[in-house]
Amino acid sequence: ASEGPSHDEL
Amino acid sequence: MNIFRFLGDLSHLASIFILLHKIQTTRSCRGISFRTQALYVVVFIARYLDLFFRYVSLYNSAMKLFFIASSCYILYLMKIRYRPTHDPSIDTFRVEYLLAPCLILALIFNYKFNFAEVLWSFSIWLEAVAILPQLFMLQRTGEAENITTHYLAALGAYRALYIPNWIYRYFTEGLVDPIAVTAGIVQTGLYLDFFYVYFTKVLQGQKFELPA
Protein backbone atom coordinates (compact mmCIF):
# COMPACT_ATOMS: atom_id res chain seq x y z
CA ALA A 1 0.00 0.00 0.00
CA SER A 2 1.17 3.50 -0.74
CA GLU A 3 1.09 5.92 2.14
CA GLY A 4 0.55 9.62 1.68
CA PRO A 5 -1.94 12.24 0.69
CA SER A 6 -3.71 11.70 -2.59
CA HIS A 7 -4.00 15.47 -3.08
CA ASP A 8 -6.91 14.81 -5.41
CA GLU A 9 -9.29 15.01 -2.47
CA LEU A 10 -10.82 18.20 -1.21
CA MET B 1 -13.65 9.20 -7.82
CA ASN B 2 -16.08 6.87 -6.14
CA ILE B 3 -19.68 7.33 -5.06
CA PHE B 4 -18.85 8.05 -1.38
CA ARG B 5 -16.36 10.71 -2.28
CA PHE B 6 -18.73 12.28 -4.81
CA LEU B 7 -21.68 12.28 -2.39
CA GLY B 8 -19.38 13.75 0.27
CA ASP B 9 -18.40 16.61 -2.03
CA LEU B 10 -22.03 17.18 -3.00
CA SER B 11 -22.94 17.29 0.67
CA HIS B 12 -20.23 19.87 1.26
CA LEU B 13 -21.51 21.97 -1.64
CA ALA B 14 -25.07 21.61 -0.36
CA SER B 15 -24.07 22.76 3.12
CA ILE B 16 -22.69 26.02 1.70
CA PHE B 17 -25.80 26.65 -0.40
CA ILE B 18 -28.00 25.97 2.63
CA LEU B 19 -25.99 28.43 4.72
CA LEU B 20 -26.15 31.11 1.99
CA HIS B 21 -29.88 30.49 1.62
CA LYS B 22 -30.37 30.84 5.38
CA ILE B 23 -28.48 34.13 5.52
CA GLN B 24 -30.17 35.59 2.41
CA THR B 25 -33.77 34.60 3.19
CA THR B 26 -33.73 35.47 6.89
CA ARG B 27 -31.43 38.45 6.13
CA SER B 28 -29.59 37.40 9.26
CA CYS B 29 -26.62 35.38 10.38
CA ARG B 30 -28.11 34.69 13.78
CA GLY B 31 -26.98 31.37 15.18
CA ILE B 32 -23.92 31.14 12.92
CA SER B 33 -20.46 31.31 14.46
CA PHE B 34 -18.26 33.87 12.74
CA ARG B 35 -15.23 32.22 14.27
CA THR B 36 -16.02 28.86 12.69
CA GLN B 37 -16.59 30.51 9.30
CA ALA B 38 -13.30 32.41 9.60
CA LEU B 39 -11.49 29.16 10.41
CA TYR B 40 -12.88 27.63 7.20
CA VAL B 41 -11.34 30.46 5.18
CA VAL B 42 -7.99 29.65 6.80
CA VAL B 43 -8.52 25.93 6.11
CA PHE B 44 -9.36 26.39 2.43
CA ILE B 45 -6.61 28.90 1.70
CA ALA B 46 -3.99 26.78 3.49
CA ARG B 47 -5.03 23.58 1.70
CA TYR B 48 -5.80 24.91 -1.75
CA LEU B 49 -2.67 26.98 -2.27
CA ASP B 50 -1.69 24.04 -4.46
CA LEU B 51 -3.99 25.52 -7.10
CA PHE B 52 -0.88 27.45 -8.12
CA PHE B 53 1.45 24.51 -8.61
CA ARG B 54 -0.57 21.32 -8.94
CA TYR B 55 -3.27 20.55 -11.46
CA VAL B 56 -5.46 17.53 -10.73
CA SER B 57 -8.63 18.03 -12.75
CA LEU B 58 -11.12 20.68 -13.75
CA TYR B 59 -13.50 19.29 -11.10
CA ASN B 60 -10.81 19.60 -8.44
CA SER B 61 -9.79 23.16 -9.35
CA ALA B 62 -13.38 24.36 -9.72
CA MET B 63 -14.34 22.97 -6.31
CA LYS B 64 -11.27 24.49 -4.66
CA LEU B 65 -12.01 27.91 -6.14
CA PHE B 66 -15.64 27.61 -5.11
CA PHE B 67 -14.79 26.74 -1.49
CA ILE B 68 -12.31 29.62 -1.18
CA ALA B 69 -14.67 32.13 -2.81
CA SER B 70 -17.83 31.06 -0.98
CA SER B 71 -16.14 30.99 2.44
CA CYS B 72 -14.79 34.52 1.88
CA TYR B 73 -18.21 35.67 0.68
CA ILE B 74 -19.83 34.27 3.84
CA LEU B 75 -17.37 36.25 5.97
CA TYR B 76 -18.28 39.37 3.99
CA LEU B 77 -22.00 38.73 4.57
CA MET B 78 -21.45 38.21 8.29
CA LYS B 79 -19.01 41.03 8.93
CA ILE B 80 -20.35 43.72 6.61
CA ARG B 81 -23.71 43.10 4.97
CA TYR B 82 -25.58 41.60 7.92
CA ARG B 83 -23.21 42.73 10.65
CA PRO B 84 -25.94 43.94 13.09
CA THR B 85 -27.46 40.43 13.15
CA HIS B 86 -24.27 38.86 14.44
CA ASP B 87 -23.98 38.66 18.21
CA PRO B 88 -20.29 38.35 19.18
CA SER B 89 -21.17 37.97 22.87
CA ILE B 90 -22.25 34.34 22.37
CA ASP B 91 -19.48 33.53 19.86
CA THR B 92 -16.61 33.40 22.29
CA PHE B 93 -14.67 30.19 21.68
CA ARG B 94 -10.94 30.93 21.83
CA VAL B 95 -9.66 29.95 18.38
CA GLU B 96 -6.02 30.20 19.42
CA TYR B 97 -6.62 27.02 21.42
CA LEU B 98 -7.36 25.34 18.09
CA LEU B 99 -4.79 27.07 15.87
CA ALA B 100 -1.74 26.41 18.06
CA PRO B 101 -2.29 22.65 18.60
CA CYS B 102 -3.08 22.19 14.89
CA LEU B 103 0.16 23.90 13.94
CA ILE B 104 2.08 21.65 16.33
CA LEU B 105 0.32 18.54 14.97
CA ALA B 106 1.16 19.67 11.43
CA LEU B 107 4.83 20.11 12.31
CA ILE B 108 4.93 16.60 13.80
CA PHE B 109 2.62 14.74 11.41
CA ASN B 110 3.21 15.50 7.76
CA TYR B 111 4.27 13.51 4.73
CA LYS B 112 7.16 15.78 3.86
CA PHE B 113 8.71 18.55 5.85
CA ASN B 114 8.18 21.40 3.45
CA PHE B 115 5.98 24.49 3.50
CA ALA B 116 3.18 23.15 1.29
CA GLU B 117 2.91 19.75 3.02
CA VAL B 118 2.99 21.21 6.55
CA LEU B 119 0.33 23.71 5.51
CA TRP B 120 -1.74 20.89 4.00
CA SER B 121 -1.50 18.88 7.22
CA PHE B 122 -2.35 22.01 9.27
CA SER B 123 -5.48 22.52 7.18
CA ILE B 124 -6.57 18.91 7.67
CA TRP B 125 -6.25 19.13 11.48
CA LEU B 126 -7.81 22.57 11.60
CA GLU B 127 -10.78 21.47 9.51
CA ALA B 128 -11.39 18.63 11.97
CA VAL B 129 -11.92 21.06 14.86
CA ALA B 130 -13.10 24.22 13.04
CA ILE B 131 -16.72 23.39 13.88
CA LEU B 132 -16.09 23.64 17.64
CA PRO B 133 -16.89 27.39 18.01
CA GLN B 134 -20.18 26.69 16.20
CA LEU B 135 -21.04 23.68 18.36
CA PHE B 136 -20.02 25.62 21.46
CA MET B 137 -22.39 28.42 20.45
CA LEU B 138 -25.18 25.91 19.87
CA GLN B 139 -24.55 24.46 23.30
CA ARG B 140 -24.81 27.92 24.87
CA THR B 141 -28.04 28.92 23.14
CA GLY B 142 -29.48 25.40 23.49
CA GLU B 143 -31.56 25.69 20.32
CA ALA B 144 -31.21 26.41 16.63
CA GLU B 145 -33.31 27.31 13.62
CA ASN B 146 -34.15 24.26 11.48
CA ILE B 147 -32.25 25.62 8.49
CA THR B 148 -29.10 25.99 10.59
CA THR B 149 -29.34 22.37 11.67
CA HIS B 150 -29.70 21.28 8.00
CA TYR B 151 -26.52 23.22 7.27
CA LEU B 152 -24.67 21.46 10.09
CA ALA B 153 -26.01 18.05 9.09
CA ALA B 154 -24.82 18.47 5.48
CA LEU B 155 -21.44 19.73 6.67
CA GLY B 156 -21.04 16.80 9.08
CA ALA B 157 -22.16 14.28 6.46
CA TYR B 158 -19.43 15.46 4.09
CA ARG B 159 -16.50 14.22 6.16
CA ALA B 160 -18.46 11.19 7.36
CA LEU B 161 -18.88 10.16 3.70
CA TYR B 162 -15.15 10.50 3.13
CA ILE B 163 -14.60 7.62 5.58
CA PRO B 164 -16.15 4.89 3.36
CA ASN B 165 -14.31 6.62 0.46
CA TRP B 166 -10.98 6.03 2.22
CA ILE B 167 -11.89 2.39 2.93
CA TYR B 168 -12.88 1.94 -0.71
CA ARG B 169 -9.66 3.52 -1.94
CA TYR B 170 -7.61 1.31 0.35
CA PHE B 171 -9.09 -1.81 -1.25
CA THR B 172 -9.15 -0.58 -4.85
CA GLU B 173 -5.96 1.53 -5.02
CA GLY B 174 -4.02 0.44 -1.93
CA LEU B 175 -4.00 4.08 -0.91
CA VAL B 176 -3.68 5.03 2.76
CA ASP B 177 -3.65 8.57 4.12
CA PRO B 178 -3.31 8.21 7.91
CA ILE B 179 -3.39 11.96 8.59
CA ALA B 180 -6.61 12.59 6.67
CA VAL B 181 -8.21 9.41 8.05
CA THR B 182 -7.38 10.20 11.69
CA ALA B 183 -8.49 13.83 11.40
CA GLY B 184 -11.59 12.77 9.45
CA ILE B 185 -12.64 10.34 12.17
CA VAL B 186 -12.12 13.05 14.83
CA GLN B 187 -14.10 15.52 12.71
CA THR B 188 -17.01 13.12 12.27
CA GLY B 189 -16.87 12.19 15.96
CA LEU B 190 -17.41 15.80 16.99
CA TYR B 191 -20.75 15.71 15.19
CA LEU B 192 -22.12 12.60 16.89
CA ASP B 193 -24.05 14.41 19.63
CA PHE B 194 -25.43 16.85 17.08
CA PHE B 195 -26.44 14.02 14.70
CA TYR B 196 -28.24 12.24 17.52
CA VAL B 197 -30.44 15.27 18.27
CA TYR B 198 -30.86 16.02 14.54
CA PHE B 199 -32.12 12.53 13.74
CA THR B 200 -34.29 12.10 16.83
CA LYS B 201 -35.80 15.61 16.82
CA VAL B 202 -35.44 17.71 13.67
CA LEU B 203 -36.11 14.88 11.22
CA GLN B 204 -39.15 13.90 13.31
CA GLY B 205 -40.57 17.38 12.82
CA GLN B 206 -39.57 18.81 16.18
CA LYS B 207 -37.48 21.86 16.96
CA PHE B 208 -33.78 21.45 17.63
CA GLU B 209 -33.48 21.90 21.38
CA LEU B 210 -30.81 20.60 23.67
CA PRO B 211 -31.77 19.27 27.08
CA ALA B 212 -31.10 21.92 29.72
From TrEMBL, chain B:
Keywords: Endoplasmic reticulum, ER-Golgi transport, Membrane, Protein transport, Receptor, Transmembrane, Transmembrane helix, Transport. The chain crosses the membrane at residues 55-76, 97-113, 119-138, 179-199. GO terms for molecular function: ER retention sequence binding. It is a multi-pass membrane protein. GO terms for biological process: protein retention in ER lumen; protein transport; vesicle-mediated transport. GO terms for cellular component: endoplasmic reticulum membrane. It is found in: Endoplasmic reticulum membrane. InterPro entries: ER_ret_rcpt (IPR000133). Belongs to the ERD2 family. This is ER lumen protein-retaining receptor. It comes from Hypholoma sublateritium (strain FD-334 SS-4).
